[in-house]
């Protein structure tokens, strides 16, 4: 085939000068040229195709474009239809240009960082220059003609529109990969015409195709408006730093219709035609490149629809190494979009993974498919997405695998100092993907042993190398603050961080002082507080603003409805309440400490989101360590029985009020602090002690032997309690739990005194129970309590008939035994 193609190219090159001067091209000549174009399009792989265009018989390809310009001008001047041979020739040249632009984009896959890459970089610049000459410089009249025609496309028949679409696609894809500013004016004029198309009545009618008649079929006209024009707008917004003012308004005005259109195609599984596929690809490309913030429930359903799309083998089975298929473009766009909107929304992720229990297997299949096709970008982004999903499921084996891969990608991105990308994926996307997985102990153990310096160095180099103006690195540095805050709750890591160089703390203080971003301010404030480096005035005016409010509520924002209900119920009983969102500013630690000075009780709304919220964890640690009365409210997941939900709510409120009243009474009498009322759901007994390592069935806690107590405690990283449990059985653990529920500093002191005596008797180094370990013990016991132990109560541990005496127990080692 290549020998035959070489002969064809040689013949055309020999006659090119004469053919260029012709004023009429007969059918036989156009057929001959079309045959040669088809042979060129059949060349694989992509680098061979690009080499052909760049380095072999360049006059031939110049002539292809020249003849196309002539045919379009003749058509425009005489206003008559093109004959079949002319249409076929122009279609093939359009596809040829489209492939050049896509191949060039794929070849420009990785940005450059090292001087060794200069030769390759120069080669790519030469290739871009050559393609620019073919598509724009040598045929500017044709570009102007096609751009001017855009708003009037609907006037033409379907065959003509089908022919001209690849020409517009070549301009779109070339803008996506172009790294020079020479063509900025041309792309701007192209986009201005695209905007006119998006504002047209024809565009709006295309979006409404399924609104009145869901049996209608999309046509090539829909493909032009919804696919090509929408994608062109998205690419331009992505490439132009000074994005047009109309971009946001257009997207917001059409957003609900975009969602309805895509939802209909997905629900009825209608993405089986090229027109439908290109329409949905264009719309999603626009959404991804503009990254409009999605908040309402309708838009959340849209994200779930996209998740279902990603799991559909119909799409990922057609992935190629580059954007040569619309399935590839679609999967690339959707996965990127899902990462952007899922990485910090655990509720959305939980909702997604409930839609398909086989999502892990399907995404792993997608990764394999992308790797086999040579598409590293899709493979890596799918790994990141799966890492985000596993951070909500505690699949530690899978999480550890992809977490270590992600750290490798971060290190490779750091080596690319010119752009901080890896495989055209910005380093910030890698940081976002590991944000929440950092809160799990198996991952923290890996970090503590090998990778903590990676994150501290990110901050140190941010200042040392003056990277404040680098948008990607700056975003990574800010995310690193949040990651280190999460890690600082781990005692081992906290000790390591406290011994960091002065440069590290100087950068933290500088960021905390200078940033205007709320999340960054909170992260640096919380991290400095955990490391005992936060200096603040405990006498704040905030306390005066809350004079007389003796009850506070600490909660995650996702549980705000529950908090409003609790506040209203307490107000009815005459209690004045403040919530941590009433007066919290970005420097939340000083504000919270000030509020707590006049607070008698802190109600903690426990939920999965609360336990993952660093700010909430900091507040709970402070309240417990400072000796405040802490009352826990377990946020219930509503059932399908409204009456039962109301009964549970009423009983929980009654229990909470009783605890507040009883604590207030005993406090006035000088008695000791009572139990913490924890509203509990019924939990099934766990089937293993050590996550994935053990399978031994757990009996009721009260029936445990000492061996079973030690087996349960061993993997939980509670060294102090492990030492205390040397002779404990299950009943002793429960009694100790009741004792610890007093949540006072004296309780911790009593335990540490016993622990000190044990270490002294055994001639071992003295260890102490931290506040974090103290709370951890209570949480882990709560997970194990069965309905039988609770004696039928699904509401509150305070309803137990505790066998403990009312006076404070002065326990010694195993004295409860």
UniProtKB/TrEMBL annotation:
Q: What organism does the UniProt record list as the source?
A: Adineta ricciae (Rotifer)
TIR domain residues are: 553-625
In its UniProt entry, what is this protein called?
Answer: TIR domain-containing protein
InterPro entries, sorted: TIR_dom, Toll_tir_struct_dom_sf
Tell me where the transmembrane regions lie.
none
Taxonomic superkingdom: Eukaryota
| Cross-referenced SUPFAM superfamilies | Toll/Interleukin receptor TIR domain
What Pfam families does its record include?
TIR_2 (PF13676)
Lineage start = Eukaryota, Metazoa, Spiralia, Gnathifera, Rotifera
What GO biological process term is on the record, naming one?
signal transduction
């Amino acid at each position: 085939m290549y020998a035959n193609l070489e002969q064809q190219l040689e013949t055309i090159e020999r006659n090119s000068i004469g053919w260029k001067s012709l004023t009429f091209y007969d059918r036989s000549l156009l057929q001959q040229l079309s045959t040669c174009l088809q042979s060129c399009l059949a060349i694989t792989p992509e680098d061979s195709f690009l080499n052909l265009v760049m380095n072999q018989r360049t006059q031939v390809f110049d002539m292809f474009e020249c003849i196309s310009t002539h045919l379009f001008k003749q058509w425009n001047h005489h206003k008559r239809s093109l004959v079949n041979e002319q249409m076929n020739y122009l279609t093939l040249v359009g596809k040829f240009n489209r492939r050049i632009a896509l191949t060039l984009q794929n070849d420009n896959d990785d940005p450059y960082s090292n001087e060794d890459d200069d030769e390759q970089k120069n080669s790519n610049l030469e290739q871009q220059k050559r393609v620019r000459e073919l598509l724009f410089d040598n045929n500017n009249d044709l570009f102007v003609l096609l751009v001017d025609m855009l708003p009037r496309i609907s006037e033409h028949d379907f065959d003509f529109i089908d022919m001209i679409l690849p020409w517009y696609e070549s301009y779109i894809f070339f803008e996506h990969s172009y790294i020079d500013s020479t063509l900025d004016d041309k792309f701007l004029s192209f986009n201005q015409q695209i905007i006119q198309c998006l504002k047209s009545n024809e565009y709006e009618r295309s979006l409404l195709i399924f609104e009145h008649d869901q049996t209608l079929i999309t046509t090539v006209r829909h493909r032009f408006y919804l696919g090509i024009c929408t994608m062109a707008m998205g690419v331009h917004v992505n490439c132009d730093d000074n994005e047009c003012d109309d971009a946001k308004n257009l997207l917001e005005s059409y957003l609900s219709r975009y969602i309805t259109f895509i939802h209909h195609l997905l629900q009825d599984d209608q993405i089986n035609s090229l027109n439908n596929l290109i329409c949905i690809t264009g719309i999603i490309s626009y959404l991804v490149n503009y990254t409009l913030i999605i908040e309402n429930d309708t838009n959340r359903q849209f994200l779930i629809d996209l998740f279902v799309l990603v799991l559909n083998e119909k799409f990922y089975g057609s992935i190629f190494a580059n954007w040569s298929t619309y399935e590839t473009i679609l999967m690339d766009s959707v996965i990127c979009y899902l990462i952007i909107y899922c990485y910090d929304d655990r509720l959305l992720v939980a909702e997604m993974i409930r839609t398909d229990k086989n999502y892990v297997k399907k995404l792993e299949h997608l990764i394999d498919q992308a790797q086999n096709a040579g598409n590293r970008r899709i493979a890596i982004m799918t790994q990141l997405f799966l890492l985000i999903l596993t951070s909500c499921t505690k699949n530690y084996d899978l999480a550890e695998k992809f977490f270590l891969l992600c750290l490798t990608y971060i290190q490779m991105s750091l080596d690319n100092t010119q752009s901080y990308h890896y495989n055209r994926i910005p380093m910030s996307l890698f940081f976002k993907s590991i944000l929440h997985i950092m809160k799990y102990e198996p991952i923290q153990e890996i970090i503590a042993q090998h990778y903590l310096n990676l994150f501290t160095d990110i901050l140190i180099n941010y200042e040392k190398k003056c990277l404040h103006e680098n948008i990607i690195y700056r975003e990574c540095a800010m995310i690193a603050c949040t990651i280190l805050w999460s890690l600082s709750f781990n005692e081992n890591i906290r000790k390591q961080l406290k011994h960091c160089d002065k440069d590290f703390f100087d950068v933290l203080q500088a960021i905390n002082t200078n940033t205007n971003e709320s999340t960054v301010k909170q992260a640096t404030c919380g991290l400095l507080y955990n490391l005992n480096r936060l200096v603040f005035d405990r006498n704040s005016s905030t306390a005066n603003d809350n004079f007389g409010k003796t009850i506070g509520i600490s909660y995650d924002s996702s549980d705000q409805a529950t908090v409003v209900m609790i506040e209203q119920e307490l107000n009815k009983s005459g209690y004045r309440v403040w919530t941590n969102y009433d007066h919290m500013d970005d420097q939340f630690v000083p504000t919270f400490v000030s509020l707590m000075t006049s607070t008698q009780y802190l109600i903690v709304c426990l939920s999965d989101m609360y336990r993952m919220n660093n700010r909430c964890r900091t507040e709970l640690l402070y309240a417990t360590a400072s000796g405040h009365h802490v009352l826990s409210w377990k946020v219930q997941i509503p059932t399908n029985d409204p009456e039962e939900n109301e009964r549970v709510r009423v009983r929980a409120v009654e229990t909470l009020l009783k605890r507040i009243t009883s604590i207030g009474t005993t406090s006035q009498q000088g008695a000791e602090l009572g139990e913490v009322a924890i509203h509990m759901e019924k939990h099934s007994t766990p089937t293993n002690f050590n996550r994935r390592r053990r399978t031994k069935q757990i009996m009721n806690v009260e029936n445990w032997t000492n061996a079973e107590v030690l087996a349960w405690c061993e993997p939980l990283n509670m060294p102090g309690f492990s030492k205390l449990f040397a002779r404990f059985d299950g009943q002793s653990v429960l009694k100790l739990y009741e004792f610890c529920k007093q949540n006072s500093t004296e309780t911790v002191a009593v335990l540490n005194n016993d622990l000190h005596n044990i270490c002294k008797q055994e001639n071992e180094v003295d260890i102490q129970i931290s506040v974090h370990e103290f709370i951890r013990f209570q949480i882990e016991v709560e997970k194990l309590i069965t309905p039988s132990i609770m004696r039928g109560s699904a509401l509150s541990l305070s309803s137990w008939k505790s066998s403990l005496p009312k006076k404070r127990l002065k326990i010694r080692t195993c004295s409860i035994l």
